[in-house]
Amino acid sequence: MKKVFLFFSMIFSFGVLIAQQGSAYPPLDKSPMDMSYFPGNYPLLKIQGKITEPLDARVIYSRPQKSFRTIFGELVEYGKVWRLGANEATELDLFRHVRIGGKRLPKGRYTLYAIPYESKWTIIVNKDTDTWGAFKYDPKKDIVRVDVPVEKNSEVTDALTMIFEKRVDGANLVIAWDNLRIALPIIF
Questions:
Q1: 4, 6, 8, 14 from 1: Cα distances, Å
Q2: What tens digit of pLDDT does each residue of 114-129 get?
Q3: If 0-12 CB within 10 Å is exposed, 13-18 middle and 19+ buried, where does residue 47 land?
Q4: Are 31 and 86 spatial neighbours (Cβ–Cβ below 8 Å)?
Q5: Would you say 125 and 144 are in contact if contact means Cβ atoms under 8 Å apart?
Q6: Predicted model pTM
Q7: Is the peptide bond before 149 cis (omega within 30 degrees of 0)?
Q8: Cα 99 versus chain centre, distance
Q9: Strand duo 142-149 + 103-105: pairing
Q10: I want to staple 38 with a disulfide (CB 3.0 to 4.6 A). Which of 97, 151, 164, 188 is the partner?
């Protein structure tokens, strides 16, 4: 009987230890981080040995959810600098020299911000990286500011989504959330 009691006591203690270790991990983020590449599916093509174009750009961002909220004009205020996502500010990696808003940008890593308005967004390319939100946004570190028109979508996009769309002279960085869509032209 003592052996049975000792056995179950050890199993219980082991279970408590495992439960305590599991709680040491942070909970899942409601706004998971994501990446988009240009050309699209670049990592998969690289693994498969099917790359036909070099990697030109990548955007790294966190994907907040609409979750029945009013996004633009409330959660994301008009006329104020926004981190263009959730958590860390969105980052744009350029693997070649490009033009955005008529200005030449050398290859490198940048932070993207936006100032949304009802009919246009001002997209900001800033040289300060590894920032959380827009709390320490410094306009003196802006490299480019470009206005892009807002398009209405017929469908609602629940999670903020960024993708690259190919164009003849480069790509558009398409940003969609709620019932809005904007396209930032990037010229290669």
A1: 5, 9, 11, 20
A2: 999 999 999 999 999 9
A3: exposed
A4: yes
A5: yes
A6: 0.83
A7: no
A8: 21
A9: unpaired
A10: 164
**Token pair 């609409």: residue:** 66
CB 77 within 8 A of CB 50: no
| Neighbour count for residue 94 (Cβ, 10 Å) | 21
Cβ pair 96, 64 in contact under 8 A: no
Torsion (CA) 134, 106, 42, 123 in degrees, nearest 10: 30
Indicate if the pLDDT at residue 7 is higher than 70: no
Q: Which amino acid is at 13?
A: S
What lies within 8 Å, CB to CB, of 43 at 6+ separation is 37
CA atoms of 96 and 32, how far apart (whole Å): 27
Rg (CA), the chain: 22
Can you give the pLDDT at residue 20? 47
CA distances from 47 to 41, 42, 44, 161, 163 (A): 10, 9, 5, 24, 20
| Residue recorded with tokens 């230890």 | 17
Rounded CA gap, 46 and 52, in Å? 9
